[in-house]
Design goal:
InterPro entries: Peptidase_M20, Peptidase_M20A, Uncharacterised_RocB. The protein has 545 residues and is of the alpha/beta class. It is built from 16 helices and 21 strands.
C-alpha cells in the first residue's frame, strides 16, 4: 500500500520531518539522517533491496542519505533527486521557539496573534491554505516530495532509474553536497548508470511581497566571498600622518565596491545583485593609542557567467582605484596640515597584490618550511575557528611578516564558494522545461515562470564545473584554506557535469519566523508536476540519444 501519494499521507510525512530540529551543526542533523534512512527503509522495495538505502559519512561524522530505485537493470538513464535536510536556527521565533518544529500548533498560535503580522501574511493565514514552521518550505517539503517520488518509482512508474540524495549542511558551507559529489560518482560506477538530470526540490521563492507566481529554475546563482586585508603603517595617535590607518583603507575599498554596478552580470532578463559588504573590522585585539594599522573587509559577490580570472582582475583593479584615492587624499591632507605645522609632506605609495603574491614574497624571505609551520600551528591551535576568521588571521600573519612592503592591500578568497550553473540552453532541459510550463498552464491554469538562475544559492552549484586551469588557478591560488580546512571536489564536479532543473513547492519567508508553505497546492499541483517533469525527462532523454 502506498503511503505518500495522498494529501493526508504527504502531510503526515512532512510534519514528521519538520518535527526533527535538524539545525545545521546540531545533533538534529544526525537524528534526521537516521530518520530518513529508517523511513525509506520501511518501503517494501527496500526491504527486498536493503543495500539501496545507505548512510554515507562526512569527514566530521554527519551523514548524507541515498536511496536508489532500479526496476530494470538494462536501463541506464537515471534522474538524481537532490535535497537538503538541515534548517537554520530558530532564534527569530522568540518566545515561540518551542513551537518552531510543530507546524499545526505554531500555525494556531500565529492565528491567535495575527495582528502582529503584515497584511500579506495575514491574507495567507486567513486562507487556511498555509502551514507555518521552521524548515517547512526550506526544504522539508522538497525532501518529502522526493520521498514520495521514490515511493512512486518503486511501483515501476518511471521509465528509468531514480536516485535520491539528501544532505546536511546546505545552509552553511554545503559540506553535505561537497561530500555528496564523490558519492554520486561512486554510485554511478557501482550501479553502472547514466545520470541524465539532477532535479532539485528547493521551494519556489516569491520575488516581492504579494507575489503569487510559481517559479521553476534551470540553474543556480554562483557566489564568492572576496576579502581585502588592509595593512597600513602603525603610528601614535599624536602623529597620525606618520602612519596609515587600516580602517581608512578598508573603508575606501568598501566605498569602491559597495553597490558597484560594474560587478552586475546580466543573463537575458535576469541580473545579479550589486556586491555588498558582509564583514569590515580592524584587527586590533585591545585598546591602545596606536592607530589600527590593519583591517579587513569582505564582500558578497554573486555570479552568472563571468570567469573567476576576470573577477580577480576586476577586484585588483577596484583595489588599485581605492589605493590611488587614498594616496591622493593623504597627500592633500598632509599639505593642508603643513600650512599649519611646518613639515614636508611625502606622498605614500600603497601596494595592491594578491594573496599568492604575498605568499611568494613571504616564501622568499622566510622559506617554505617556516610558512608551513606557521599555517599548521594556526590551524592546530584553532580547530573550531570560523573559516573566515581563520583565513583573515593567516593573511594578517603573512602581511605582518612582510611589513617591508607595507602599506599594502591584499586580495584573498574565503569560504564558501558556489559556482554558477545554468542548463537553460541544454537540449534536454530546454525541451522539458517548455513542456512543464505548458503542462502547468493547461492542467492547473498555473503560470509557472522559468527562471534561469535560482537566486537563493543551492547545492546544484556542485553538479558541474567548466572553468579552465588558468581560470581556476587565479582563484585557488588566492584561497588560503582551500585544500586544508575547505575542500571543493573540482575533478568530480567536472566528471559529473549533469544538466540541472529545480521544481519545488510554493513557499514564503524562508529563514524568517513566518516561514510557511501552501500545503494543499503541494499535492494538487507540485506533486503531479514533478511526476510529469520526470516522465518527460526520461522520454526526452531517449528521444535525444
Amino acid at each position: 500500500m502506498l503511503k505518500w501519494q495522498t494529501k493526508e499521507g504527504y502531510k503526515k510525512l512532512l510534519k514528521d520531518l519538520v518535527s526533527i530540529p535538524s539545525i545545521t551543526h546540531h545533533d538534529g542533523e544526525l537524528f534526521m539522517a537516521e530518520h530518513l534512512h529508517h523511513t525509506l527503509s520501511s518501503l517494501d522495495y527496500f526491504t527486498k533491496h536493503p543495500d539501496y538505502v545507505r548512510h554515507h559519512p562526512l569527514p566530521d561524522g554527519r551523514k548524507l542519505i541515498t536511496a536508489f530505485v532500479q526496476n530494470d537493470p538494462s536501463i541506464k538513464e537515471t534522474i538524481i533527486l537532490l535535497s537538503h535536510f538541515d534548517v537554520v536556527s530558530v532564534e527569530d521565533f522568540g518566545e515561540w521557539k518551542h513551537l518552531a518544529f510543530r507546524p499545526e500548533e505554531l500555525t494556531e498560535k500565529i492565528m491567535e496573534n495575527k495582528e502582529l503580522l503584515h497584511t500579506f501574511v495575514q491574507d495567507d493565514l486567513n486562507s487556511g491554505e498555509w502551514l507555518f514552521g521552521r524548515g517547512i518550505m526550506d526544504m522539508k517539503a522538497g525532501v518529502a516530495l522526493h520521498m514520495s517520488m521514490i515511493e512512486k518509482a518503486t511501483t515501476g512508474h518511471f521509465k528509468g532509474n531514480v536516485l535520491m540524495i539528501s544532505v546536511p549542511d546546505e545552509e552553511v558551507h554545503s559540506e553535505g553536497m561537497l561530500a555528496g559529489v564523490s558519492v554520486l560518482r561512486q554510485l554511478q560506477e557501482e550501479y553502472d548508470i547514466k545520470y541524465i538530470t539532477c532535479l532539485n526540490g528547493e521551494p519556489s521563492f516569491t520575488k516581492y511581497p504579494g507575489d503569487t507566481s510559481s517559479y521553476m529554475y534551470t540553474g543556480s546563482t554562483g557566489k564568492i566571498l572576496p576579502g581585502f586585508l588592509c595593512y597600513g603603517k602603525e603610528t601614535h595617535v599624536g602623529e597620525p600622518l606618520a602612519g596609515m590607518n587600516g580602517n581608512v583603507m578598508a573603508a575606501e575599498i568598501t566605498r569602491e565596491l559597495e553597490w558597484n554596478v560594474d560587478y552586475v552580470e546580466k543573463f537575458r532578463e535576469e541580473a545579479t545583485p550589486v556586491p555588498t559588504n558582509l564583514i569590515q573590522k580592524d584587527l586590533k585585539d585591545h585598546y591602545s593609542v596606536q592607530i589600527p594599522h590593519a583591517a579587513v573587509t569582505l564582500f558578497n559577490l554573486m555570479l552568472f557567467n563571468r570567469s573567476l580570472s576576470d573577477i580577480t582582475d576586476m577586484l585588483i583593479k577596484s583595489a588599485k582605484i581605492a589605493a590611488l584615492r587614498l594616496e591622493d587624499r593623504l597627500f592633500e591632507r598632509s599639505k593642508n596640515v603643513a600650512e599649519i605645522v611646518p613639515f614636508t609632506p611625502k606622498k605614500e605609495s600603497i601596494k595592491v597584490l594578491t594573496f599568492n603574491e604575498l605568499y611568494e614574497h613571504a616564501v622568499t624571505k622566510y622559506g617554505q618550511e617556516e610558512l608551513d609551520r606557521r599555517e599548521n600551528m594556526l590551524q592546530t591551535n584553532n580547530p573550531n575557528a570560523d573559516e573566515r576568521k581563520l583565513t583573515i588571521q593567516y593573511v594578517f600573519e603573512l602581511a605582518s611578516l612582510c611589513r617591508d612592503i607595507s602599506p599594502m592591500i591584499v586580495l584573498f578568497y574565503t569560504p564558501p564558494f558556489y559556482p554558477a550553473v545554468c542548463s537553460s540552453d541544454h537540449p534536454l532541459i530546454k525541451a522539458t522545461s517548455d513542456m512543464v510550463v505548458s503542462h502547468a498552464k493547461n492542467t492547473f491554469n498555473s503560470e509557472l515562470v522559468n527562471v534561469h538562475y535560482f537566486s537563493g544559492l543551492s547545492d546544484l552549484s556542485y553538479i558541474g564545473f567548466h572553468g579552465d586551469s588558468r581560470d581556476l588557478s587565479s582563484f585557488t591560488s588566492n584561497f588560503p584554506l582551500l585544500g586544508s580546512r575547505y575542500h571543493i571536489p573540482f575533478d568530480d564536479m567536472r566528471e559529473l557535469d549533469i544538466p540541472v532543473i529545480n521544481i519545488g513547492p510554493l513557499g514564503k519567508d524562508a529563514h524568517q519566523w513566518t516561514e510557511r508553505l501552501e500545503i494543499n497546492k503541494v499535492m494538487d499541483e507540485t506533486h503531479p508536476l514533478i511526476i510529469f517533469a520526470m516522465e518527460t525527462l526520461f522520454d526526452q532523454a531517449k528521444n535525444q540519444i
